[in-house]
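Sequence in, structure out.
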Amino acid sequence: MAATHHPGPECEFGLGRAEAWVVHHVMVEQLTREDHDGEEPWWALDIVRKLENGTTTFTTYEAWRLREALLAHAERAETPDTDVAMAMAIVHRIEETFGSPPMLES
């Protein structure tokens, strides 16, 4: 089954260098997980590509998938406190910037 992209308008979402590192790290974790059922999460790959190209614009769908991944990252016991604080700050900014979440699918 092919992954379905959810194109839509993109919104500039500025990230500092440390924030971008945390987001990149969390997205790479999403891409290297072993429980994908054979499909890479296209949205994580798109976010990584954007960050590596110096872009921090996200669609609402990407932002809310990022939010879910950051929340999971922040809840893990092994996540450093500084990363938890940064992840939660990004989560709050996503909520303020992007409004209500779209219907999410895997």
